[in-house]
Amino acid sequence: MPKPDVIAARPPDLPSPWRTEARVTLMEDARAFARDVVLPLADELDPQKAEMPRSLLDRMAEKGWFGVTIPAEHGGMGLGVFEYCLVSEELSRAWLSVGSILARGQGLGTQTLDEERRKDLLRKSARGEWIGSISLSEPTAGSDLAGVRTKAVRDGDEWVLTGTKRWAGFAQAADFIEVLARTREPGEGEPRSAGLEPFLVVKEAGTFPKGIAGRVIDKIGYHGFLTFELELDGVRVPESDRLTGLYGDEGADADSGGFASVQRGLNIARVHTAARAVGVAQGALEDTQAYLQEREQFGRSIAEFQALRFALADMAADVAQARAFWRQVAHLLDQGEPAESESAMAKLVATEMAVRVTNQAMQLHGGNGYTTERRVERYWRDARLTTIFEGTSEIQRRIVSDRLLGKA
User: Fold this and answer.
1) Closest by alpha carbon to 54, among 69, 41, 64, 44?
2) Has 340 been annotated as catalytic?
3) What are phi and psi of 112, to 5 degrees?
4) In the prediction, which pLDDT does 408 show?
């Protein structure tokens, strides 16, 4: 049975004070692109666990979406977190991985020590010519990034990286891999995150450089790009490719050491994840709305049964609530507010909501929902991941509770 074409022609739902003509135009453009370009590709490639084609990234680059948050002086759109998440939500409604790939631009991998090179990389990032992979986690270090054990040893004008990294999405197809490694052990009285620095491993797209071997992790969802476990064996990185900024504990104070330099980035990532989760849930909602009107039982449309109507109403309310929340927090970030607790709350609320809504969507599809003939199973698989990546729900609860009660 063919999948229905159900990305609805929803009216622009940007209430004051967030509604501007430019934002409505941006949202409508992203929505049309998701419907006409992304959705057909997702329907074809997701069942194959295949990668999104480079041609899709090129079309997104033409829109300028890899540079939404890059200043206009460097070729970007010069917009804020709000617009970045607005585009990502619409793309994620069609395929989560496409809403996610935008984060691999936005100036990622540009914080080099040389200012002129940094400007050049920013321009490439804005054009979609510098799309990267982030390699932070390890088999024994996920939420606790301070537990990273990959070593970076200085050898003249180079650093030599050795260790195992895990969950490096898009690593082979990327133009670079940003690797978090330990240059030294923490000294007495220093935080556990002391000595952690990011390094830029420049590579040819589609290959791994000398010293890196990648093993594909077979995921149950989040298809569109491959995710790898990487073995780094003497990877040489010039000093010029050591990036500025340090990483620290997920639950560290916002003003403590290295964590302060990436706190805003972590908060943006959480709100971005909230927006992506809302997009996935919106897809499940719209598909279910169409299915209830299509399906007939007992001589009439099941859209007439009150229990099912009320379930759909609850789904719609949950999606709208989470959407309003991420927009509010994105606005705060664009206003320069730290919004650490709010970002964690938005991520927690939206991702847990996406799991509930996609699960209910599958239930309302009945047996048809438990097939690959309908998109709802894709939304269900992808939604489940949103409660895990970019900090698990438990980490978000830790952040919020620590702000409310102090650290345990």
Assistant:
1) 41
2) no
3) -80, 165
4) 80
- Which superfamily does 21-126 belong to? Acyl-CoA dehydrogenase/oxidase, N-terminal domain (1.10.540.10)
C-alpha distances in Å from residue 401, one per residue of 47, 249, 337, 343: 40, 16, 19, 13
Picking from 69, 68, 92, 16, the residue whose alpha carbon sits closest to that of residue 319 is: 92
Orientation angle between helical segments 259-294 and 306-334, nearest 10 degrees? 160
Q: What number is the average pLDDT over the span 379-393? A: 96
Query: β-strand 300-301 against 296-297: which pairing, if any?
Result: antiparallel
User: Burial level of 177, CB count in 10 A (0-12/13-18/19+)?
Assistant: buried
Collapse the DSSP code of 263 into the 3-class scheme (helix H, G, I; strand E, B; otherwise coil) and give the result.
helix
Place of tokens 């270090």: 141
* Torsion of Cα atoms, 361 then 362 then 363 then 365, to 10°: 90
Catalytic residue selected from 51, 239, 390, 394 = 390
Residue type, 30: A
Identify each DSSP E strand in 156-315 by its residue range: 158-169, 176-182, 196-202, 212-216, 227-238, 296-297, 300-301
Average pLDDT, rounded, for the chain: 91
**Is residue 50 exposed (0-12), middle (13-18) or buried (19+ Cβ within 10 Å)?**
middle
Structural contact between residues 390 and 273, judged by C-beta atoms closer than 8 angstroms: yes
Q: What are the boundaries of each domain within the chain?
A: 21-126, 132-241, 259-405
CATH architecture of 259-405: Up-down Bundle (1.20)
**CA angle, corner 323, sides to 322 and 325, nearest 5?**
65
For residue 17, whether the previous peptide bond is cis, meaning omega lies within 30 degrees of 0, is yes
The CATH T-level fold of domain 132-241 is Butyryl-CoA Dehydrogenase, subunit A; domain 2 (2.40.110)
Look at residue 302 and tell me whether its pLDDT is greater than 90.
Answer: yes
Quickly state the pLDDT bin for 250 (edges 50, 70, 90).
very low
- Supply the DSSP string of 366-385, one letter for each residue: GGGGGSTTSTHHHHHHHHHH
Q: Look at residue 255 and tell me whether its pLDDT is greater than 50.
A: no
Tell me: the pLDDT tens digits for 18-72? 889 999 999 999 999 999 999 999 999 999 999 999 999 999 999 999 999 999 9
At 185, give phi and psi (nearest 5°). -80, 150
